[in-house]
Design goal:
It is built from nine helices and 15 strands. The protein has helices at about 5-20, 20-30, 30-45, 60-85, 100-115, 170-175, 230-235, 245-255, 285-295, and strands at about 50-55, 60, 95-100, 125-130, 145, 155-160, 165-170, 195, 205-210, 215, 225, 240-245, 260, 270, 270-275. It has a five-stranded mixed sheet, covered by helices on one side. Strands 7, 12, 13 and 14 form a four-stranded antiparallel sheet that branches. Strands 1-2 form a two-stranded antiparallel ribbon. The longest helix has 23 residues, at about 60-85. It starts with a helix and ends with a helix.
């Protein structure tokens, strides 16, 4: 296969990923007409349509999707390998993109990475807050953070935090008005502050466990958020019970601004793990991040 075919394949991958000839042409620094001509030439040589074009969008055909799944990771590997050659320079450099839930970003990534990054001014950290189970390969992240039991089996996973314990909390004022729940089932009679997950737009089920017996409860209340810090704020304002990671509320519990209930029902989960594809060639910048988080 000659170099022209590689250029044409790269053009196809860029158009398919961007979903637009306009955006792809801008990214590649070529004209739309030249890009369109390139793709038509590739389709002619292969004898099959790779893209479906409408007035508003461009999307891969079945054959195009298959080619994209095969070719795109290879180009990514080449790009990563070229980036990793920066280790021949004096200092690690480049951007490391990580996807994580808000609590992991604030309580693990920030405290571990922020002291170290002063020493590596050419390393950029791009953190994306997301509660969905993001596919880091297709979304082109270098790594993701999940609890240990949620990491896919084909990924390398490195523990970056202790086990995570949950806590049920509300203000003394709230419990002055409402009797404290004695079992998780009684939470259904309380005002609870919910978390909405992006997967199917569902509310998070509150998971409990006692003596090895799991118990899941769906709760209701006046407030629903899609992040954790807002739920804690609503609890501190007296709007009801929040179910949040224990380390977020330690200071509030010490100060007495929040009271904890059903402690013996709140489970621990395997702590946060940084995960990344096993085929990834680690760059010096990635190794800086990995070493800082592993510590």
């Amino acid at each position: 296969m000659d170099h022209e075919n590689f250029n044409d394949l790269l053009a196809f991958v860029t158009v398919a990923r961007e979903g637009s000839f306009t955006k792809a042409a801008a990214k590649m620094g070529v004209s739309q007409s030249a890009l369109s001509h390139t793709i038509r030439g590739l389709e002619t040589r292969l004898g099959i349509r790779l893209l479906t074009r409408t007035t508003r969008s461009v999307s891969p055909t079945e054959a195009g999707e298959r080619l994209l799944q095969t070719a795109a990771p290879r180009f990514d590997e080449i790009t990563q390998e070229l980036a990793s050659l920066s280790e021949l320079r004096d200092k690690p450099a480049g951007t490391i993109r990580i996807t994580a839930a808000e609590h992991a970003a604030n309580h693990v990534l920030w405290p571990k990475l922020s002291p170290v990054m002063h020493d590596y001014p050419e390393v950029k950290i791009d953190i994306n807050i997301d509660y969905g189970l993001t596919n880091i390969v297709t979304q082109r992240f270098d790594a993701g953070v999940r609890l240990g039991d949620q990491v896919e089996k084909d990924m390398i996973a490195v523990r970056i935090s202790p086990d995570l314990r949950m806590a049920l909390v509300a203000t003394p004022d709230y419990f002055a008005r409402r009797a404290k729940p004695r079992t998780p089932h009684e939470l259904q009679q309380h005002s609870c502050i919910n978390l909405r997950l992006p997967t199917h737009n569902n509310l998070m089920v509150w998971e409990f466990e006692k003596n090895g017996e799991p118990l899941n409860v769906r709760v209701d209340g006046q407030w629903v958020f899609n992040n954790t810090s807002s739920r804690l704020r609503a609890a501190l304002a007296g709007y009801g019970i929040a179910y949040v990671p224990e380390d977020m509320v330690e200071e509030h519990l010490k100060e007495g601004t929040l009271i904890r209930v059903l402690r013996d029902w709140c489970p621990s989960w395997p702590g946060y793990h940084l995960y990344y594809p096993s085929r990834r060639q680690s760059s010096p910048a990635f190794n800086v991040v990995l070493d800082a988080l592993r510590a």
